[in-house]
Amino acid sequence: MRNEPRPKSHNSTGGTLKAFQRRGEVIKPAELIEIRGGEKITLAARRIYNQLLSNAFGPDMASEGREFRIPFSELRGNHTSNDRVTEAILSLMQTVVRVRMSDGSTRNVHLLGPTDVEKFGPGVATMLTYELHPKLLPILRDSQIFARLEMQILHGFGTKYGMALYEIIAKRIGMKHVFYNDFEPEELRDYLGVPHGKLVPFAALRRKAIEPAVAEVNALAPFSCRIDVVEKQGRKVAKLRLFWWIKTVDEQKSQWEGQKENQGGLFDAEFSSLLCEFDQS
After folding, report:
1. What pLDDT shows up at residue 8?
2. pLDDT digits (tens, 9 = 90+) for 193-242
3. How far apart are the first and last CA of the chain?
4. CATH assignment, 177-267
5. Residue ranges of the Initiator Rep protein WH1 domain (predicted)?
6. CA distances from 246 to 79, 120, 228, 260, 273 (A)
């Protein structure tokens, strides 16, 4: 896979759908990362949606009426039941999110269109056929900025907050000379998917959502991050600053050694070989 083209991770001169998606990777349009109104989307639903996007990716992804197929076995992960997959699919079909368009306008759109389930034998679902919602197609067609997400890393997250933060940074990690981004607390709360009415005090938001998300990203991703309070209005937090940076080789080596027993598959096999060379030197 190393000899295949590796375009910039943050943009594409020909548009997102003309980028090259490697095996085990999700190319996700930036407009679908920082969404609002997705607080009811579970961790499983977020992971499955990324799989559906990866499976559908290509020049025809934004073609109206285009159907895509994927086996349920690929969506179940380590689970043997289809119940969680079915629940996630229904949630994605019913959820309306607010997406910021490239021109600055806002569009309310369903994340997923119609679906059909093929069965082999009584009650045994084997294949999902799905369409992306028609209102989503212009976003996919016109998107110029995207994130490259590693599917194996996505499977390592135990919280939806961690996965959301990983996507937020992955959208920006290829940008030159940009190493931080400011967010209002309510803005970041929405992007992480914190339910309305939950974790209202900032101390609770930081302890239950922000800190666990930062910890997961730092444990799993090839980059590290931190989130600082940079502005207050009286006692109220008014602005947060998200910093990110690429891990050094030594940090990646330490990360791999710490995770290899449980999640060794999250890290590149060639990097594993490189570690062996380090150990022998």
Report:
1. 38
2. 999 999 999 999 999 999 999 999 999 999 999 999 999 999 999 999 99
3. 26
4. 1.10.10.10
5. 26-169
6. 33, 46, 18, 20, 20
